[in-house]
Structures are given as structure tokens and as C-alpha cells.
Design brief:
Layout lengths: L1 H18 L21 H14 L4 E7 L2 E7 L5 E7 L9
Antiparallel strand pairs: 1-2, 2-3
Length: 95
């Protein structure tokens, strides 16, 4: 009887151990892997503006421009300057 109980507990532990990885959380999604195809232009612009703010860029507004992101960035003195960024990485683009 004890051998059957030990066998049953061991089997239950093995089955639970096999099922456990199925409940593991998926890997986090990188921000560049986010599918934005469903977004409207306004929501996509807000998302890009948020990403720029996360990078420390104080952009007041953005728009797509010739495959780049054109942002109007508020300078320290309160004026605005236009800056271009890569659409995928948001790295500054030099002219």
C-alpha cells in the first residue's frame, strides 16, 4: 500500500512538472516588435510621441515625412525646432 502511494505521488509530481512549462509567462515583447498595423494615424502618432518622450526628447508634435519622423521639439529656451528621426529606431537623422 505504501509503495502504491509513493508511486502515485511520484507520478502526480511528474505529470505536474510536465504541465508546469505550459503555464509559464511568455517572453516580454520588445518595443520595436509591436505590431502597429491596426493603429489609426492619430494613435500611431501618439505612440511615436510617447516613445520620443521615453527617450528624453521633448517633442510637441510629430508627423511622418518622406519615410522619416519629423518632430517639432521644444528647446530649453521655449522655442521649437524641427528634427528628423528614423521611423523604426527613432535615432536622430542628420542632413
Amino acid at each position: 500500500m505504501i509503495k502504491n502511494s509513493i508511486l502515485a505521488l511520484t507520478t502526480a509530481a511528474l505529470v505536474a512538472g510536465v504541465a508546469l512549462p505550459a503555464f509559464a509567462a511568455p517572453a516580454p515583447v520588445e518595443s520595436t516588435d509591436v505590431d502597429t498595423s491596426y493603429l489609426t494615424d492619430e494613435v500611431a502618432n501618439d505612440y511615436t510621441l510617447l516613445r520620443l518622450h521615453e527617450k528624453g526628447i521633448n517633442a510637441a508634435s510629430i508627423e511622418e515625412w518622406n519615410g522619416k519622423i519629423r518632430a517639432f521639439v521644444v528647446q530649453e529656451d521655449g522655442t521649437q525646432a524641427m528634427q528628423l528621426f528614423d521611423a523604426d529606431t527613432l535615432a536622430p537623422v542628420g542632413l
